[in-house]
Structures are given as structure tokens and as C-alpha cells.
Write a structure and sequence with these properties.
With 132 residues, the protein is mostly helical. 74% of the residues lie in helices and 0% in strands.
Length: 132
């Protein structure tokens, strides 16, 4: 997709390694969240429904800019979106693409914490259901 974007926007191909790191970290975060959800629900149909019910609204909230809503509501949105990998993945990719923007370290650390947390939840859920 980035090669297609190159047709319209000049991309810094020297940052390709950072693009890959951001893509892989975002994918790992989403995969860990999906594994935790799947392990907790145990039924394919239930997981599919839960995935849409949870991920679509949270992904939409991740796109809300800071000035679009009131300060209190934006703080609530920030807390909710911090619990899911969508916003940190977006921030990591934005940082990887824009050398003048904020650093990529913060979003990658956030994703790493989420990956570990969701992996722990998935492991706990699988263990709990395996003993039943």
C-alpha cells in the first residue's frame, strides 16, 4: 500500500526499516488482542461477533483528534484507546513515516506492553478453560 501511496505523496524510503517495525509491532498487538479475545470466548461465532463489537468502535475512537470533543470526553477516549493496540499502532506508523514527527519509541513501548498484557490474558484464559 505504501508503494501506491508513493504515487501521491513523497515517502522517505530510507525509513523502510522503521515502517516494517511499526507494521510488525502493530500486527503483533492486534494478534495478541485477538488471541486474548479468542481464548476468553472459546466459541468461534462469539469471538467473531465480539471482535466486531469491540474493535470497530475502538478503532473509530482512535481516530478522534484532540480538538474535536471536549477535554473531559477526550481524556475518557484516551484511556479507552490506550487499552487497545489501534491508536499506538497508528502512532507508530505515523512516526515511522514522518521523520519530523514524534519519535517511534513511545508507541512501540506501548505496543510491547499491550502485547505482553494480552498474551498473559490469553494464557490465563486458556489455562482456566483447559482445567474445566
Amino acid at each position: 500500500m505504501l508503494a501506491g501511496v508513493q504515487l501521491f505523496v513523497d515517502l522517505a524510503w530510507g525509513r523502510f526499516g522503521l515502517w516494517l517495525v511499526a507494521i510488525l509491532a502493530g500486527g503483533a498487538g492486534l494478534g495478541a488482542a485477538g488471541a486474548a479475545l479468542g481464548a476468553a470466548a472459546r466459541d468461534v461465532r462469539a469471538v467473531s461477533l465480539l471482535a466486531f463489537m469491540i474493535s470497530l468502535p475502538v478503532a473509530l475512537l482512535s481516530l478522534v483528534p484532540s480538538g474535536a470533543v471536549g477535554g473531559g470526553l477526550y481524556d475518557v477516549i484516551r484511556v479507552v484507546t490506550a487499552l487497545f493496540p489501534f491508536k499506538p499502532a497508528l502512532q507508530a506508523m505515523t512516526s515511522a513515516l514522518d521523520s519530523a514527527g514524534p519519535g517511534i519509541g513511545g508507541p512501540l513501548l506501548h505496543l510491547a506492553i499491550l502485547i505482553l498484557a494480552y498474551a498473559a490474558v490469553a494464557r490465563f484464559a486458556l489455562r482456566r478453560f483447559a482445567s474445566v
